[in-house]
Design a protein that fits this description.
mainly beta, 1 helix, 5-stranded antiparallel β-sheet, 5-stranded mixed β-sheet
Length: 324
């Protein structure tokens, strides 16, 4: 048979911001006692997606799984692929994904387990419309292409994440959706644009730790650094030449830095596994200004209400999913 258990399909997470890559991981175990050939036909592995009401989701294209390989007996093969471009899954809601593998030699099809995911819209924190810088050899007197950076906060049960979404202002086409970090309840992300139309974000991710993140208009991450509130609070600063950097605080070198730090001092656990619990960082209220304390308490109250609402929605979804 194919597959050591019925569970050979998984996703990298179960909640996605609309437009975020959905990475499906397929694990195939060959327990047949003989070598099997896979991947000779482009459709040897097919995915299907259905929405919560049971209707099949529109297929926009094929997931490219090409590449023939032989799988010896008792060996496991794993492939990861982004299935989002192949399916119309931008609307918020719950979706169910299943995979089917075909073994050419035997003319047999094998269905995977089904996995569910939620696509959410999130709340836009801020946005910037910027012109895309032209290459030096391009005509400089034409109107620039305009792209939009949207900073989006996603709350799901007791987790919060901050994303940047980059879209074309004219067509609404999505270029990139990138998770920046987990967020804490008192996060107040700051953002600035530099002279090259790059987006700079500074956001609090733990009681005293901040992430500094820079991306260009195509969604290429240019920088990821971490600063601690020691002595002074880290702040974004725009220089007279319109460049942007961080002032204040103390830079903490970590294994999640980009470009990589030559001597990281802190393990990745301090970082931003997106979706860090919002309860994992409790600020020192005594060291906060009165205005900060007030805002923190208001944010805590708002988050409790948001959490209750999300739990109610989750209960309703589970109830509706029974027998699905």
């Amino acid at each position: 048979g194919l597959g050591s258990t019925n569970h050979w399909l998984s996703l990298d997470q179960n909640v996605y911001l609309s437009g975020e890559a959905v990475i499906a991981r397929v694990i195939i175990s060959n327990l047949s006692g003989q070598t099997i050939s896979l991947g000779s036909a482009p459709d040897w592995l097919r995915f299907s997606v259905e929405s919560h009401d049971g209707t099949l989701v529109n297929r926009l294209g094929d997931v490219d799984m090409s590449g023939a390989f032989d799988l010896p007996s008792s060996v496991v093969a794993a492939r990861s692929v982004n299935i989002l471009p192949a399916f119309d899954m931008l609307r918020s809601g719950r979706y169910k994904v299943t995979a089917t593998a075909k073994v050419e030699d035997w003319g047999q099809f094998y269905n995977s387990n089904s996995v569910t995911l939620d696509v959410v819209k999130g709340v836009e924190v801020t946005r910037f419309d910027v012109g895309v810088p032209k290459s030096l050899d391009a005509p400089q007197n034409e109107m620039p292409e305009v792209r939009r950076y949207s900073l989006i906060r996603v709350a799901y049960l007791d987790k919060m994440r901050l994303y940047v979404r980059i879209t074309d202002v004219a067509s609404n086409a999505i270029y990139q959706v990138m998770p920046i970090c987990g967020m804490v309840a008192f996060s107040d992300p700051k953002a600035m644009i530099d002279s090259k139309s790059c987006l700079h974000v500074l956001n609090q991710i733990h009681a005293r730790r901040f992430i500094y993140f820079v991306t260009d208009t195509s969604g290429n991450m240019l920088k990821r650094e971490f600063y601690d509130y020691i002595g002074s609070r880290p702040v974004l600063y725009q220089n007279t030449d319109s460049s942007v950097n961080v002032r204040g605080g103390v830079r903490m070198r970590t294994s999640a830095d980009f470009p990589p730090s030559p001597t990281p001092e802190l393990p990745p656990s301090i970082v931003t596994k997106p979706g860090d619990s919002i309860t994992n960082a409790v600020p020192d209220l005594k060291s906060m200004a009165k205005e900060e304390q007030k805002r923190y308490k208001e944010e805590q109250k708002r988050l409790k209400e948001e959490k209750k609402r999300l739990e109610r929605e989750e209960r309703a979804r589970k109830k509706a999913s029974k027998g699905w």
